[in-house]
Specification:
38% helix; Rossmann fold
Length: 168
């Protein structure tokens, strides 16, 4: 059971957003749909230059679009950000950028982040708590405590192992 205080502000970034690539809307106009105040600040928070304000949404790479969606989500100064597979449509180089950005935003804005991910490498590297579900709760705790062969077998069936390669 989850109980949220009515004062909690929540931001949400979907797995993907289906936009017409020809849609004649700029990043500034898109962000203004949420709030007319300080779109530059929102872009700065997600490490995009102010020049992106004049770009059309359809011209953005998938990684740039994801960062614009994150900017959209933080405009309301949320306490909690929810993500559904935040790097699903982002190339490998952009994935690291997105996760490093989320970590930075978490620190700078004192945010709680909840994200769905099937990438155990990402989970191990960036999460401080993991909730594993397979039609029910299978495990909950720190990644190094719960991403064990026994728990992975419960999640995926059979004998599974996860190798965490630590990078210095």
């Amino acid at each position: 059971e989850v109980n949220l205080s009515p004062e909690i502000r929540i931001g949400y970034v979907p797995q993907k957003i289906d936009l017409e690539r020809d849609l004649p809307i700029t990043v500034k106009e898109f962000l203004a749909l949420r709030s007319r105040s300080a779109p530059e600040k929102a872009l700065e928070a997600v490490d995009l230059a102010p020049t992106f304000l004049n770009k059309r949404i359809g011209e953005l790479s998938s990684g740039e679009l994801q960062r614009v969606l994150i900017a959209w989500a933080i405009i309301g100064h949320p306490d909690l950000l929810l993500f559904d597979e935040p790097t699903a449509s982002v190339d490998v180089a952009g994935q690291r950028t997105v996760y490093e950005l989320l970590h930075k935003l978490q620190e700078e804005y004192n945010l709680a982040l909840i994200l769905i991910s099937h990438d155990l490498t990402v989970v191990y590297r960036y999460a401080n708590k993991v909730l594993c579900l397979n039609r029910q709760q299978v495990c909950f705790g720190a990644p190094d405590e719960v991403l064990t062969p026994a728990e992975l077998a419960k999640l995926y069936g059979g004998d599974r192992k996860f190798y965490h390669h630590a990078h210095p």
